[in-house]
């Protein structure tokens, strides 16, 4: 049977502003990408890959090479969802020109549709530089994990008046720079709602209330595969980590008791009769 499902395009994501919520999840590997392709509108190859798959304490050591390799893996496992790739720390902050070079490599070498980068007012010129040269950009403001050393931790933001003013300015700047969407991470509910009403581009929340135009979560959090910490904004829809541990325990017990492998797993068994 011929499958002619066209991949969701970047303009279709932007067109969801104020309409049907955008469903987004991260993926880093081909098998997980295959499992979620039919259910997610937008798949993010997040730099959270460093913490989730590599055990790094922050996202800071993640390289452009890692993002490209995982972007390629996710593209191989998808045909319907729109795929975007995080630009990692150090690959875009220095100048719009360096950001373009990194983003162009991502789009050319992975086939993904867009990139995401962290920063508001400070990154607006870079976002405009990329978008006007053919690179769709998703913004990311609020809790910015690549700024963890400046912030002194992974902290929700927008409670204080100065924080709220900065976030409004960031959202406006990213919107006016031409981002096709923006992630709001760890933003207090009333401010996330206000910003969503303020900007023309869709907001995709993570820890930013149901008032956003979409939601994103780290897939390993959703599947119960990540055990190091559970942010308040995570809802676990499965406990696959527990199932994996139980499977490993059962396998070990079978091998030790010589219950595995059984005859059905062996070659050249002499059948009776
Ligand atoms: N598995 C995973 N899930 C994520 O959502 C995620 C990553 N990794 N890595 C990259 C960033 C880091 N993120 C994080 C990490 C920790 C907290 C956290 O501990 N939050 C606390 C305190 C919030 C506060 O003090 O304001 C919480 O209770 O949610 C939040 C977001 C979100 N991202
Ligand atoms: C949590 C999302 C928004 C992200 O940036 C990531 O997974 O890297
Ligand atoms: Mg990220």
From TrEMBL:
<feature type="binding site">
    <location>
        <position position="118"/>
    </location>
    <ligand>
        <name>Mg(2+)</name>
    </ligand>
</feature>
<dbReference type="GO" id="GO:0008168">
    <property type="term" value="F:methyltransferase activity"/>
</dbReference>
<comment type="function">
    <text>Catalyzes the reversible reaction in which hydroxymethyl group from 5,10-methylenetetrahydrofolate is transferred onto alpha-ketoisovalerate to form ketopantoate.</text>
</comment>
<comment type="similarity">
    <text>Belongs to the PanB family.</text>
</comment>
<keyword id="KW-0808">Transferase</keyword>
<feature type="active site" description="Proton acceptor">
    <location>
        <position position="185"/>
    </location>
</feature>
<dbReference type="GO" id="GO:0003864">
    <property type="term" value="F:3-methyl-2-oxobutanoate hydroxymethyltransferase activity"/>
</dbReference>
<dbReference type="InterPro" id="IPR003700">
    <property type="entry name" value="Pantoate_hydroxy_MeTrfase"/>
</dbReference>
<comment type="pathway">
    <text>Cofactor biosynthesis; (R)-pantothenate biosynthesis; (R)-pantoate from 3-methyl-2-oxobutanoate: step 1/2.</text>
</comment>
<dbReference type="GO" id="GO:0005737">
    <property type="term" value="C:cytoplasm"/>
</dbReference>
<dbReference type="InterPro" id="IPR040442">
    <property type="entry name" value="Pyrv_kinase-like_dom_sf"/>
</dbReference>
<protein>
    <recommendedName>
        <fullName>3-methyl-2-oxobutanoate hydroxymethyltransferase</fullName>
        <ecNumber>2.1.2.11</ecNumber>
    </recommendedName>
</protein>
<dbReference type="Pfam" id="PF02548">
    <property type="entry name" value="Pantoate_transf"/>
</dbReference>
<keyword id="KW-0963">Cytoplasm</keyword>
<feature type="binding site">
    <location>
        <position position="86"/>
    </location>
    <ligand>
        <name>3-methyl-2-oxobutanoate</name>
    </ligand>
</feature>
<dbReference type="GO" id="GO:0015940">
    <property type="term" value="P:pantothenate biosynthetic process"/>
</dbReference>
<feature type="binding site">
    <location>
        <begin position="47"/>
        <end position="48"/>
    </location>
    <ligand>
        <name>3-methyl-2-oxobutanoate</name>
    </ligand>
</feature>
<keyword id="KW-0566">Pantothenate biosynthesis</keyword>
<feature type="binding site">
    <location>
        <position position="116"/>
    </location>
    <ligand>
        <name>3-methyl-2-oxobutanoate</name>
    </ligand>
</feature>
<dbReference type="GO" id="GO:0032259">
    <property type="term" value="P:methylation"/>
</dbReference>
<keyword id="KW-0479">Metal-binding</keyword>
<feature type="binding site">
    <location>
        <position position="86"/>
    </location>
    <ligand>
        <name>Mg(2+)</name>
    </ligand>
</feature>
<comment type="subunit">
    <text>Homodecamer; pentamer of dimers.</text>
</comment>
<keyword id="KW-0460">Magnesium</keyword>
<feature type="binding site">
    <location>
        <position position="47"/>
    </location>
    <ligand>
        <name>Mg(2+)</name>
    </ligand>
</feature>
<dbReference type="GO" id="GO:0000287">
    <property type="term" value="F:magnesium ion binding"/>
</dbReference>
<keyword id="KW-0489">Methyltransferase</keyword>
<dbReference type="InterPro" id="IPR015813">
    <property type="entry name" value="Pyrv/PenolPyrv_kinase-like_dom"/>
</dbReference>
